[in-house]
Structures
1.
Amino acid sequence: MTWRCVAMTAVAIAALVQRAGAQEPGHDPVLAEIGAPIFQRYCTSCHGPDGHGDGPAAVALRPRPADLTAIASRRGGEFPTSSIARFIDGRFELAAHGSREMPIWGRRFGADVPDAEVGESITRGNIASLVEYLKSIQQAPLAPLEPTNERGGPEQSSDQRSGR
């Protein structure tokens, strides 16, 4: 797959994320499906295949990797979408807040793309997809988002539109 094809995919993902909104409850099943192989490739060595923090590298890490299936339960049932996205990205953390054990994925995801703008789009798309995947694996799963129409309201079936 060429970097242009990857870039087009990232742009499509970014558009879906804007449509879904960062603070809406639930997860976007399409983005979660895109995020699953990204998680498998980049996250399982530390967080394990199911996100419980039990990957093969976990025994050597201090502190141990987090159980990613309990993000919402540790926060009273709320999934902090933007905080998790910023943490995965890592480029915006302040050094004064301590060391960072996790890789700075915001630097790595688009690094091999010669066009910086396209690389940034790929980075944001990958992070958005990972966040949606993490929402989908929460211990008390967050419900999928309802499809929306162009105006941001819930989609209606043809029966609902005709008043049947």
2.
Amino acid sequence: MELPFGYYWTFPTGTCELPPPRLWGMEDHVTGPHCSCGQRRAPGSSTDLRVLVVDDHPMVRTALSEALSDEDGVTVVGECEDGSDVVEAVARLRPDVVLMDFSMPVMNGLAATEALRAADLHSQVVMWTAEGSIERPTVAAAGGDALLPKGARTDALVHCLRTVAVGCGCCPYCL
């Protein structure tokens, strides 16, 4: 499927071209939601992307939840203020994706991601950070699916969440 591209990001590893936001999280009535590259979610999956937001700063959690809730097809199912709350919240709320802050005071995002994997909970994890020192292999080893800088634009964040949810690796932040 040929898409009309026009949004570009430049990274140290090269340039990434993204479709216009109106095409992200496309859906067709036969096969359900899919990534802009054509990768499809598993049959029987919910059409809405269910997201759990985890950050120790209340203002950041609120702003993220509001921004994500404004997106078509995205539902914020809950918020946690620390990684120590994540396993219980994921077991109860069953999000498709957990948007997890790396740096939190009680239990950081890496430890919380490891706890999710140890509990055999299958939500995807997008780790996001303002710290430049965390490395992609470290997040991948903990069980994370993507590493996103906090400076990323909202459209890049939503694209990353949708991409990770379908199990696609076409996002430049995917691990």
